Every structure is written in structure tokens, then in C-alpha cells.
């Protein structure tokens, strides 16, 4: 019979493992390590995984999702994620991670000799993980851009 301390320790270990799997996902993207990134998604052709990149339609199926990451990696010279507001919720063998991706990225310069200008972007993301015999694997990723203020405020009428 397990006591409350055992259950608390198991839950804390699960949360730590999910946080590590989430971090591994972003680190694989930063390194452009497609093989590692592929291994982080649920395996098998019969499993339906999904992904929504900011501004993209829903991608369904492991092959389609992984092709999208290959395309992103092939066209991104540099990308770095600074994660904030990371929260983990769990129920059974499913974990939900929400976070803000503070992204810094750049492509090749026009002359092809150096890194082009760096661009920052904020994206709120939801990553859903499933427990497998090989650890926590991504089932779904959804990223949505955060609209930022442009600094152009509407002229307010002031009393004369």
C-alpha cells in the first residue's frame, strides 16, 4: 500500500520527467537535431499526432508533423527559445504543458555569408505528452502568436 508521501514523490517525479521532455523538444529544435526531435514524438503509424505552428493549418499524422519540422529546420539558420510561464498539469498517463515561447531566430543574410537579422517573436504554446514505455512523448503541439501592441495608440479626444 502506498502512502501520501509515495504518491507525492511519484507525482513530482512525473512532473520533472515531463518538464525534461518538454525542454528536450525545444533543445532539439535549437540544435537542428531532426533525429532527436523525431524520437520525442509518439511513435507508430497508427497514432495520430497533431501540430499547429503559428499561422499554419492543423497538421495531422506523424509523417506530416515531422515533415513540417524538417522544413522549418532546413530554412532556419538560428533559433533559440526562452521559455517562460511553464506550467504542467497531469491526469493519468497524459500531461499538458503550457508555456510562452520567447523566440529569437534568423535566416541567412542576402549575401549568404553571414547570419541575417535576428527577429523576436512571442508564441504561447500547448504541448501534450503521453506516457510510453520509453518515457514521455509528444502527442500534440499547438503554438499561437501573441499579438503585441504596435505603439500606435488611437488619438484620444481631449476636452478643449
From TrEMBL:
Residues covered by region (Disordered): 141-160
Entries under Gene3D superfamilies matching the protein: 3.10.450.50
Composition-biased stretches (Acidic residues): 150-160
Top-rank lineage group of the source organism: Bacteria
Limits of the SnoaL-like domain: 18-146
InterPro entries membership: NTF2-like_dom_sf (IPR032710), SnoaL-like (IPR037401)
Alphabetized PANTHER family for the sequence: NUCLEAR TRANSPORT FACTOR 2 (NTF2) FAMILY PROTEIN
Stated name of the protein: 3-dehydroquinate dehydratase
Organism: Streptomyces gelaticus
Amino acid at each position: 500500500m502506498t502512502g501520501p508521501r509515495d504518491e507525492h514523490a511519484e507525482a513530482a517525479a512525473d512532473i520533472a520527467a515531463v518538464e525534461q521532455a518538454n525542454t528536450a523538444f525545444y533543445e532539439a529544435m535549437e540544435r537542428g537535431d531532426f533525429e532527436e526531435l523525431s524520437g520525442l514524438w509518439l511513435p507508430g503509424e497508427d497514432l495520430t499526432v497533431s501540430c499547429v505552428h503559428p499561422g499554419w493549418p492543423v497538421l495531422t499524422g506523424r509523417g506530416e508533423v515531422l515533415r513540417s519540422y524538417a522544413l522549418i529546420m532546413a530554412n532556419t539558420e538560428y533559433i533559440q527559445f526562452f521559455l517562460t510561464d511553464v506550467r504542467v498539469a497531469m491526469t493519468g498517463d497524459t500531461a499538458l504543458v503550457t508555456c510562452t515561447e520567447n523566440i529569437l531566430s534568423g535566416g541567412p543574410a542576402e549575401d549568404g555569408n553571414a547570419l541575417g537579422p535576428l527577429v523576436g517573436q512571442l508564441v504561447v504554446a500547448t504541448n501534450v505528452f503521453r506516457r510510453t514505455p520509453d518515457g514521455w512523448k509528444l502527442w500534440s503541439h499547438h503554438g499561437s502568436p501573441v499579438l503585441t501592441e504596435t505603439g500606435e495608440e488611437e488619438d484620444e479626444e481631449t476636452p478643449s
